[in-house]
Design a protein that fits this description.
The complex is a heterodimer of chains A (485) and B (339). Chain A has 485 residues and is an all-alpha fold. Chain A has helices at 2-11, 16-33, 38-64, 79-103, 110-129, 131-134, 143-146, 153-173, 176-187, 193-202, 210-243, 255-281, 290-318, 322-332, 337-356, 363-390, 405-428, 434-439, 451-468.
Chain lengths: 485, 339
């Protein structure tokens, strides 16, 4: 209780820093503590229905076999493995962006890190889930750990993805510790006691003293250092599942960096999309500004150019040798040409142009650019998987893969699970890292309090009043600073 | 059911290890000469045969402990039948390189083998004489009938090739039973293994259906069970890796060389069905090969005299299938198509 008393006396003063901190807390915690909005509930239900449809489609596929998802002996790997790469790929982007910005001490990262890490966490879990529809016998998945074959790339995929999932959870959890303590101060023990106790346990008695801060900083720097090479290794190992086969188009030495850069490129793009969506939906306009989007857009465009270079490095030499020329011609001018040129136009030319042209270098422009990158890079993964899988190794008869309602529904369920997972996640934890915002965040102008913020403040204080009444341990009612006339 | 399966499988193998049993079975088949050649096989490569019957009894007792100790890891033992374990450990101890002409019996393989169990009596191989193949696909049909395969599952497929002067010839393609099998190296759960007679088999009760092996196989010899609803008649036995019928949904299957047939003195279904005598079942240890017409040849001489080649030797897979080509034919450069 003493802490809370301290908080109310010291934290809500009149200095610019304190007013800023007050606004940050309110904006970050409103979706967590305040009542859910109608649009939130509708969105969750709609997205949940899509995910449910995907699960039902998967059950159908389990009963009827992978053939119902369009697979056949000449298209033995197709959409699901592309989904695994795409989802785990976007996860790396979120984690690495956050880790690198942290390590290089970029203070503008503060409102972005939680969104980036949350995206990383949700997408890596979805990506890992996509291994199950990919397998013909998902119920035997445990055998990978029991009948270990260390020469199989898939065993190392399992180890790498497992390690990465663990690291992502830790990386997400560590900056959360101070925030959980903050939420608890806001929440009070009477209001939802289960939640209070869970947060208290998870916040590890965080009081924010010097020793705790030093420890947390040390551990966070360490995990940020670990997660960068870990992310590189995971996508490298994933690429070796392809590159260790003798199939032309997959057996490429460029594959590991090719996959890593694709992951970072699409991951940065997804962070921008998520930031744009939550900026609008969760009223973070004051904190996520044009500057954030443009800077992330620069990073994305740079990664996009590296990826274009690696694509050229992958394709060009293969076009000159007999054994791989068939694969190249099918990709660039043949049956996969549409998908390939969609990647080139929508995934490279358009986003880089949107970043390069000054007129479009704004929030809307960056959002369009990043959304097109996310979609085009999924298409690119299909272009990586299918041509080599469907190419004949003996005869000249190419295989075909047709999307079916099963594979489309399951893939869409994965897509819907990203916003669904994030919305549920940020129902329980603050959408911005409060601690980081207070510590390194660059002060916005306290004068520019938007109408949304005012409404949010009122909602919050009303909710806190109701919940806190009639109890000595009532929730702390935040002081609402009057908007200066 | 999972616990019973390896035991039954072992019993089948034990039967076939007994020389007498093999002989009686062999005398049934029309190719008498194949039998006599088998019995007269080169003694220098059959050193283990004399002790075969006595060591057989000790197979599951004394040797088990040794095998257990040398097993790659304790994890492998979990959930795996005892016989299955020893079988796998042995199959994996087989040398994978430098043995492709010696039938897996050379170098360190001998030492490893001596410490575990008696050497196998046979090292199965196949010779396909393309000069006589007319592309009738009766091998494919017989294989599909015997294994209740779907029309797409062509465990032995026949391709049409066009040689340098535009003449068409035909290429039957079974599983190559590679001595250095890429599919085996990439299987994450050891569902694909190589048994002691050199046959690469799939344990469909272990396969997780990841299809990594299909990606790795340079011969497109693996076929997945994509769809449920394949009809099987009531069968007297449970599926084994040697005879995976009925196949399990969501697992991979491939040509087994009909190794159950071979060990019981019968030809593989494809060889028996071939009216042109194209497909020979051979044994590297006894150095004999015989086709469905009853033609028996000395394997090594037959291969040497006819300039036999393996398919895609550049893949370093060391196939146990040899092809005899007609004049001007080249498997690497001739254009193939589905026939």
């Amino acid at each position: 209780m003493a802490n809370r008393a301290d908080l109310s006396e010291t934290n809500y003063g009149n200095s610019a820093r304190e007013r800023w901190s007050n606004d940050v807390r309110r904006a970050a915690m409103r979706p967590t503590i305040g009542p859910t909005s109608r649009s939130w509930r509708v969105s969750v239900i709609l997205l949940g229905l899509v995910v449910l449809a995907g699960i039902l489609a998967w059950l159908y596929q389990l009963k009827h076999g992978l053939g119902s998802a369009g697979y056949n002996d000449q298209a033995f790997w197709a959409v699901y493995i592309a989904d695994v790469i795409a989802f785990i790929g976007v996860s790396y982007g979120g984690a690495v962006i956050s880790a690198i910005l942290r390590l290089t001490g970029q203070s503008w990262r503060a409102p972005l890190t939680r969104l980036a890490e949350g995206t990383a966490l949700i997408t890596v879990l979805i990506g890992a889930m996509f291994i199950f529809p990919h397998l013909g016998r998902p119920e035997r998945f445990w055998e990978i750990l029991v009948y270990v074959n260390t020469s199989s790339p898939l065993f190392w995929d399992f180890i790498a993805i497992g390690t990465y999932v663990l690291a992502t959870i830790i990386f997400f959890y560590l900056p959360l510790i101070p925030d959980l303590a903050s939420v608890n101060k806001m929440l009070g023990s009477a209001d939802r006691p289960m939640r209070y106790r869970t947060y208290r346990a998870l916040s590890l008695n965080w009081i924010g003293n010097e020793r705790q801060r030093r420890l947390l900083h040390g551990v966070m720097s360490l995990i940020a250092l670990i997660i960068v090479p870990l992310a590189v290794s995971v996508h490298s190992v994933l690429s070796w599942a392809f590159a260790t086969t003798s199939r032309p188009g997959w057996n490429e030495s460029v594959f590991p960096p090719y996959f890593v850069i694709a992951a970072l490129y699409s991951g940065t793009a997804l962070v921008i999309v998520v930031a744009a969506a939550f900026r609008k939906g969760y009223h973070l306009e004051r904190f996520l500004t044009k500057r954030h989007f443009v800077r992330l857009g620069y990073i994305m465009a740079a990664l996009g150019l590296v990826y274009a270079y690696l694509t050229l490095a992958d394709l060009l030499p293969d076009g000159y040798t007999g054994i791989t020329a068939g694969w190249i011609s099918q990709t660039v001018t043949g049956r996969y040409a549409i998908a390939f040129w969609v990647y080139v136009i929508v995934g490279e030319v358009l986003p880089v142009a949107l970043v390069a042209i000054k007129r479009t270098r704004n929030i809307a422009g960056m959002t369009v650019a990043s959304a097109s990158v996310v979609i085009a890079l999924w298409v690119k993964r299909i272009v990586i998987v299918l041509p080599s899988a469907t190419q004949p190794l003996i005869a000249s008869h190419w295989g075909t893969y047709h999307f079916t309602w099963v594979s489309i529904t399951i893939t869409l369920a994965g897509v819907a699970a990203i916003p669904l997972g994030l919305m549920i996640l940020f129902r329980f934890i603050p959408v911005m890292s409060i601690d980081e915002m207070e510590e390194v965040g660059e002060l916005g102008s306290t004068e520019q309090v938007s109408e949304h913020t005012i409404v949010a403040q009122e909602l919050l204080s009303v909710g806190a009043h109701i919940n806190g009444n009639g109890n000595g341990n009532g929730a702390h009612v935040p002081h609402v600073p009057k908007k200066e006339a | 059911m999972r616990r019973e399966l390896p035991r039954r499988w072992y019993l089948v193998r034990k039967l076939s290890r007994n020389n007498k049993q093999v002989s009686t079975e062999l005398s049934v088949i029309p190719a008498e000469s194949f039998v006599s050649s088998l019995d007269k096989g080169d003694s220098s490569t059959r050193s283990g045969d004399l002790t075969e019957s006595s060591s057989d009894k000790e197979y599951s007792r004394r040797n088990f402990l040794r095998i257990f100790a040398t097993a790659a890891g304790a994890a492998v033992a979990v959930g795996s039948g005892i016989e299955m374990l020893s079988y796998r450990a042995y199959a994996q101890s087989q040398p994978t390189t430098n043995d492709w002409s010696g039938g897996g019996m050379t170098g360190s393989g001998v030492a490893t083998m001596a410490s575990t169990l008696a050497p196998p009596t046979h090292q199965w191989a196949m010779v396909i004489d393309l000069r006589n193949c007319d592309g009738c696909k009766s091998c494919t049909a017989a294989c599909q009938k015997a294994h209740y395969l779907t029309p797409e599952q062509t465990w032995i497929d026949v391709f049409s090739l066009t040689d340098s002067v535009g003449k068409t010839y035909h290429l039957p393609r079974p599983c190559m039973q590679c001595e250095n099998p890429p599919c085996l190296h990439v299987c994450p759960v050891h569902a694909t293994f190589r048994q002691d007679q050199g046959i690469v088999l799939v344990d469909q009760d272990r396969c997780i259906g990841c299809r990594m092996c299909m990606a790795a196989c340079p011969y497109e010899a693996r076929y997945f069970n994509w769809n449920s609803g394949v009809k099987y008649p009531p069968l007297p036995v449970q599926p084994t890796p040697e005879f995976p019928v009925p196949q399990r949904l969501g697992t991979v299957g491939k040509c087994t060389f009909c190794v159950g047939n071979l060990n019981h003195g019968m030809l593989s279904e494809c060889a028996a069905a071939c009216q042109m005598g194209v497909i020979y079942n051979g044994d590297l240890k006894t150095d004999v090969a015989v086709n469905g017409m009853g033609t028996t040849v000395k394997l090594s001489k037959f291969l040497y005299d006819n300039d036999a080649v393996t398919y895609k030797p550049e893949q370093n897979t060391h196939p146990r299938v040899w092809y005899i080509l007609g004049h001007g034919q080249n498997l690497t450069t001739d254009i193939a198509s589905k026939s």
